[in-house]
Amino acid sequence: MTYDRAAIFRIAWAAAKSRPAYHRAQDWTPGPNYGRSRPVTAAERRAIFAACLRQQWACAQSAMKHRRAALAAFPVPRPVSELEDLLFALDCTDFQRARDTFAIAALRQELDAARLLAA
Predict the structure, then answer these.
(1) Backbone phi, psi, residue 22, to 5°
(2) Given 3-state DSSP classes, what are the helix, strand and coil percentages for the chain, each rounded to the nearest 5?
(3) What pTM, to 2 d.p., does this model score?
(4) Among the ranges given (49-63, 71-85, 102-116), the one the predictor scored with the smallest mean pLDDT
């Protein structure tokens, strides 16, 4: 699994452009232009984009962490042939206990899931 850097940059760029502070800023320095709108400097725009980019990287890393945890939660399924062999061996026993019937039911469910994944 890798990060889609182009998508991260696109989203960060769109987020930076959507902020009002990216287009106009207020002049809060003492003087005659106090409180008036002024154009945003390049350094301020870079800082806004950098903040958006940091936020998008954090979101991408969090999503990757959740994806890895979700994949780790599900075990790798056993092959269909192995499940069929185990099921056949349990079905052919002379005497079945209650735990055997539960094991057969669980194997049948796992076999159905493995067949769906294989198809």
Answers:
(1) -75, -25
(2) 70, 5, 25
(3) 0.59
(4) 71-85
